[in-house]
Amino acid sequence: MNGKSESVDLRTLPLEKLIERSQVLVEALPYIRQFRGATIVVKYGGHAMVDPALKASIIQDLALMAIVGMRPVVVHGGGPEITALMKKLGLQPQFVAGQRVTDAETLDVAEMVLAGKINSEITLALNRAGVRACGLTGKDMGLILAKKLYHEPAEGGPRLDIGFVGDVVRIDPTILRILQENEIIPVISPIGVDEEGQTYNINADTVASDVAAALQADKFILLTDVRGILRDRQDESTLIHSLRQDEVEPLIAEGIIHGGMIPKVRACLDALRAGVKKTHILDGRLPHSLLLEIFTDRGIGTQIVP
Known about the structure:
By secondary structure, the protein is an alpha/beta fold. Helix content is 39%, strand content 24%.
C-alpha cells in the first residue's frame, strides 16, 4: 500500500482528453480555494481497507488533500482484520447486536491489529506518498478518555457485559492540533483508556465523530460499502444526495434508513450537533471517492447538513 500509481504520458493523449482533464482541474479550483486550511476528518473502513487498488486510491486522495492545503485527520477501523487474526489464533469471534464481545485475549488481538499492523501501514503509505503522517492511539497524550460500554437490549431487561468495549468520555485534541500545525496527518486507532489505565476497543465511527466534534471540523466523512442513503435499498439510482439533520429521524422511522446505516447517520448527527459544519457518507468502493465528493459540483454520496 504505497499510494503509487502508473503515470500517464500526457503527450500521448488526444487533444480532447487533455481539454477534458483541464476542465476537471478548473472545476476543482473553487473547492481547493474554499477548503484550504479546512479540517476534514475521514473515517476509513470497509472494503477500501481490504482491496489493494482502493487502498492506494484512498492514500492518493488523502495525500492530495494535504498537498493542496487541507488538514485531513484519519480514524480507521479494522474489524475484518481482527476477526481474521482471531481465527488464525484459534479464537472464536462473538458478537452481540453487531458489537464484538471483547475479553482480554480479544482485546490483545484488537490492539495488535489496530495499533500495530493497520495503523503503521496507513502511516507508512502516506509518508511514501509524499506527505507526513503520524500514527496514534487514544493512549497518546490522553487523546481518548474512555469508559466501559455495556450492551443495552432494545427490548429492556438487564444490560449485558460485553467485555473491554468502550465508549468515548472525552477527546483531548491537543496532540492533533500540534500535528496539524506542523502539516502532519494524524492517523488514529480507535483504542481508548479509562482513568484507571484500562484499555478499551471503541467503535471507529464513534471515535471519528467525537474527533470531528473536538476539532470543530469543517467536514466529517464516513467511508462505507454502500452508495449512501437510498430511498429504495434495491435501486442505487434513488441515492439521496443531501439531507438536513431534521430529516434523518423520520427516514429511520419509515425504514428507509435501516440496519448498519443507522449508527452511521447518528454519528453524523452527533457531529453536527457538536458544531461540525457538514457530514458525508460515501461509497469507499469507488476509486477516488474522497476527491469526487470534495472537488466536484455534484459529489457522489449523501451529505447531511445542519
